[in-house]
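tl;dr need the bound structure. longer version: we got a ligand (adenosine-5'-triphosphate) that a collaborator sent over and nobodys looked at where it sits. i said id run it. heres the input, straight from their email, havent touched it
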Amino acid sequence: MIGVRGLTKRYGDVLAVDDLSFDVEPGKVTGFLGPNGAGKSTTMRVVLGLDRPTSGQALVNGRLYTAFAEPLREVGALLDPGAAHPGRTGRAHLRVAARANGIPARRVEEVIERVGLGRAARRRIKGYSLGMRQRLGIAAALIGDPGVLLFDEPVNGLDLDGVRWIRGLLRQLADEGRTVLVSSHLLSEMEQIADRLVVIGRGRLIADATTEQILGGLGRLQVRVRSPRPDLLLAGFRERGLVVERVDEHELRVEDTTAEEVGRLAHACDVPLQHLSEVRQSLEDAYVELTGDSVEYHGGGGEAEPVPAGGAR
Ligand SMILES: Nc1ncnc2c1ncn2[C@@H]1O[C@H](COP(=O)(O)OP(=O)(O)OP(=O)(O)O)[C@@H](O)[C@H]1O
């Protein structure tokens, strides 16, 4: 169990995490979703005692990380897969971590097997592919058999096999009753992995619910309508409080309604239609809209421009 309470973290002028509160429960994969710079890594670092909060706190099983005598037995984390000493073998790297935490050496062999590192464990880390480094990082996270696990962007840069393997592993770890928090900036990835989602932007909580609830609330229905008299339709729809946008000379897009409703209104306005269809906004578009005001930088074709306070786009 992880409990984040009123967590705020400032780095000088940068407010990385802003009064953030959420819980991560055992037995589920919880996705920690947000655009780049949203504050996911900072939050994870505070949970792991690697950064001090400016205010508020993050507890693991009701205690501060720094209060654990043998923290690797409580919490395991994959933060930076490049952190291992390149001259060591994978096995030696894991043995050092085990010894430092009073964990028996046989556990090293168990985790090597669990992550499928196999014979690569005998080789020096500098020769590892990204996928092997990732497996080694996960082996290190699992070494103390912890009940709480944090993975920061674990599928970044992996090929499809690696991505599938990580998905399967996260599911198994949750099914074993562990608390699993996994961060990503990709909704499409989280959709396939997470039971619950904690969505943040600019350090603030945007949504905290089951993946199903969040996805169900995204992707609004829009109606495309073509007519030789779009001006009349536009005025008629707006009069009835509908949100309408002009797509081109003859086509309008009406938000949050149904084709039936639009057809009825067009008939009431006595305007002929040439086309009427319902389109669901894509989840990616909806996610960008949801977190849009909170994105730290928006690409503007050339140099990225910082967004002024207030989040104007
Ligand atoms: N040590 C630091 N010093 C100064 N600013 C920092 C530091 N660490 C993070 N930040 C800033 O805090 C904000 C949140 O960063 P963080 O890395 O937590 O976001 P993130 O959601 O993990 O993003 P990403 O997906 O890009 O890793 C950013 O504006 C970042 O530049």
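gonna send this back to them w/ a short note. Residues 297-313 have pLDDT under 50 and may be disordered.
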